[in-house]
Amino acid sequence: MKNILIIEDDPEIIKLLEIHLTDLIYTTAKAMNGELGLEMALKNDYDLILLDLTLPEMDGVEVCKKLRAKKNTPIIMLTAKSEEIDRVLGLEIGADDYITKPFSIRELLARIKAVMRRTGIKTSEQKDSSTINAEGLHIDVDKRKVLLEEKKVELSPKEFELLVLMASNPGRNYTRTELLNMIWGYNFEGYEHTVNSHINRLRAKIESDMANPNYILTTWGVGYKFNEDIAI
What we know:
CATH class of the largest domain: Alpha Beta
Number of domains: 2
Radius of gyration: 18 Å
Helix content: 25-40%
CATH architecture of the largest domain: 3-Layer(aba) Sandwich
Number of strands: 12
Strand content: 15-25%
Number of helices: 8
Order of helices and strands: EHEHEHEHEHEEEEHEHHEE
Strand order of the largest sheet: 2-1-3-4-5
């Protein structure tokens, strides 16, 4: 049974979410401020977190940043703000999706199912092999585990999916738009800079020299590719 943490300060929204998620055979836990939510998220293992952007004690942006530094739990941000900057910020700090209040329960449940599906299965272009190796980098696709020189690397769901997709197809050039559509699951037209942010964070975790990356290369004028010269 999937377990979802709701970090939200509106009791009516919490009650509504609990009713509908329980109907879908999810179990839920709740926190009504950012500090408690972060503490619960770090202490326990959840399949997904619904995170409000505006929270007492610690806002959703800060919660997401701190959580992403330590755990890879999928996150859907809930925001009452409709400005593009809030959506972009949520995606760039590591949220897997966002939905703007007021939202329909049907749409939210569809987003939850889509995020869980994307983080629970392999992308369509991945190799049949459940492991990928490339010059000190070991990726266990089924276990969603990455080792660099035998040391575990903590990646967010989107960082992991980007790495697996490109490492599964070394030498193939991906445009930012392609990566948006393939990894985020639907079209975020105009959000290509979100891909840049995730690539930069991924590089910071696996590259010894950000200025001269060894694994994820920039194809100028196109996008990115995984270095085919080091693929095993």
